[in-house]
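Lecture notes, unit on protein representations.

Consider one protein chain, 451 amino acids long.
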Amino acid sequence: MKRPLKSRLSTTHIIMLSFLIVILLGSVLLALPVSAADGRPVPFLDALFTATTATCVTGLVTLPTVSTWSVFGQAVILILIQVGGLGVITIMSALMILLQKRMGISERLLLQDAFNLTSLAGIVRFVKRVLLGTFLVEAMGALLYMFVFIPKFGPKGIWISIFTSISAFCNAGIDIIAENSLCDYATNPLVNAVTAALIILGGIGYIVWWDVMGLGLDAKGRKRLSRLSLHSKIAIAATLILIFGGGALIFLFEYHNPLTIGNLSLFDKIQVSLFQSVTTRTAGFATVPQQDLTNPTSLLCLLLMFIGGSPVGTAGGIKTVTLAVLVVSALATIQNRQDVTLFHRNIPKQAVNKAVAVTAMSFAIAFVSAVLLSVVTHADALDILYETVSATATVGLSRDLTPSLNAAGKAVIIGTMYLGRVGPISLALALNSKTKHQNLIKNPTEEISVG
């Protein structure tokens, strides 16, 4: 007698299939006449592209979201963004909790793998906290946006505020404000601050949330940051370095560029530079046209996009913790040290191996995608790299190449967005499962020349 299909599928297969099913379902809904603003069905390839970019929280769009889709179509996109940001497995678990159905061991194991947790203890409570924290932060973001968008758009500003808040928190980068993203609000401090805060909170990861909130206070009422877990210390430190370091370099590279920040005041130059540094780490909102950036800034943005956010959050990329592990591992090798250490703690060899594997997979996806896109299009090499790295890291920033893609180009980016979203996650889960069943028989060791 055959086992049920669910029991024959690994966690990796379930996650990949769940994303694929949601994308296909969203594509069908978006291809309906009711989803289009003018009542005429959108070509299925564009519907598939939009469903993929929303579910994979990427943000690249072949058609303007604000003018192409009806309210129904925009609602479908928003649901796909929320499902993609939280993860299909989390949404399924939330429904089980709402229906008061008992979560079995298989569902708990699936959640443990999906969130990369070390224990099954408190897994249901963890999901509840994730959902509550997500909806609370998104609600606060929407309320703050309303101070800007309701005076501008009237009652429609409520819907715009909700959509933008969820999209920002999920690091999706899709908006229904204008066809030029947030360029009209490049110097608006409230929009900049709220959007950046939502992006950072979504991208920093839920583990860091609970770690920071669970800290005790010292005698002066300050958080005891020294008690943070190693994971949280790495994620927070790397995030701050990338945001402010990236912002400083963008400020320098773009200071005299009249197409971006050259004609702005000093304060506006600083806030636009910092926002660009934040949004490149998988958010996808643009306050300056990306094609107008100088070459040094574009190359820096490629690196920031590839790195992305932090683990167990809504961001993509190889992740900040992965980058930190790679850097200290390389330094340890250069210094001929056996132990890889961060914050006076040793990093397990398994974590180093996983960091190398995830980075290699992401690089391979971006490289192959860039080669394929260069075959089917005649765009500039930098524009192609920007597009493919953006799709791989689920960022959503483009040097205005996405709308001009032909059918083959759209197919390449669809595949890249899907693999960029589920590929590194699936690889990490596969490596986790393999470590539980390692073969005790080892082959002989032999020295080779490297470098």
